[in-house]
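Re: that backbone. Tokens:
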């Protein structure tokens, strides 16, 4: 979905067609209890982070292995009149200490069957989406759009996404060790050559050429 900069993140949830059984993983910018309850009633699951002023009363604490990083796994009811009105059922609160950063994170979900570590891992995978769009903006030149209409913006973004996916497929099919960026650079300079793509992406060709060039005399080395 593409919107103008005036639309608040949380309003995007109103445009979603809720898919039963699906997981919706979102950051704290989308934390709205009425909208989350709509997902819950639609048979979908959500995973998000609690805000610093999160107010809830513990109902039940499940046993957990603190050595895994999970500090607590609880069922809670929301405190405050409006929050309790918007989400009247129990929520699951998981407090997790990240062993890498040392930060303590609090997750909220309506799923009560998956292990706590799986819920934490689901949220962590959300960051891959951020990295995906960061890679596209850095390497596929969509920092500046060629058109300003919604159709023009969508077309440019879909072209960038298609380019990324095609390069990723080629990299996987050919079992290449090169990074996606290296593959993109090679293809961008050899796109008009009549060369099989498997040959064009053999990095040995470019490494050897670079080493040979290093052995050439320097015109200004005298």
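Recovered sequence:
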């Amino acid at each position: 979905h593409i919107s103008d900069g005036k639309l608040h993140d949380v309003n995007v949830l109103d445009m979603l067609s809720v898919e039963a059984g699906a997981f919706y993983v979102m950051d704290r910018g989308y934390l709205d209890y009425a909208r989350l309850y709509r997902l819950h009633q639609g048979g979908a699951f959500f995973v998000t982070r609690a805000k610093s002023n999160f107010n809830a009363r513990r109902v039940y604490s499940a046993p957990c292995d603190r050595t895994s990083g999970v500090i607590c796994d609880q069922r809670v009811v929301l405190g405050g009149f409006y929050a309790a009105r918007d989400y009247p059922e129990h929520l699951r609160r998981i407090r997790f200490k990240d062993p890498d950063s040392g930060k303590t994170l609090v997750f909220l979900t309506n799923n009560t069957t998956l292990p706590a570590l799986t819920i934490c891992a689901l949220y962590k995978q959300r960051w891959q989406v951020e990295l995906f769009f960061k890679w596209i903006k850095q390497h596929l030149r969509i920092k500046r759009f060629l058109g300003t209409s919604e159709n023009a913006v969508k077309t440019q973004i879909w072209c960038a996404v298609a380019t990324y996916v095609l390069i990723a497929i080629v990299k996987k099919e050919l079992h290449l060790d090169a990074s996606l960026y290296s593959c993109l650079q090679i293809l961008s300079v050899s796109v008009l050559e009549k060369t099989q793509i498997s040959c064009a992406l053999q990095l040995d060709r470019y490494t050897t050429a670079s080493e040979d060039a290093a052995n050439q005399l320097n015109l200004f080395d005298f």
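The chain has two domains: 9-126, 140-213. Residues 207-222 have pLDDT under 50 and may be disordered.
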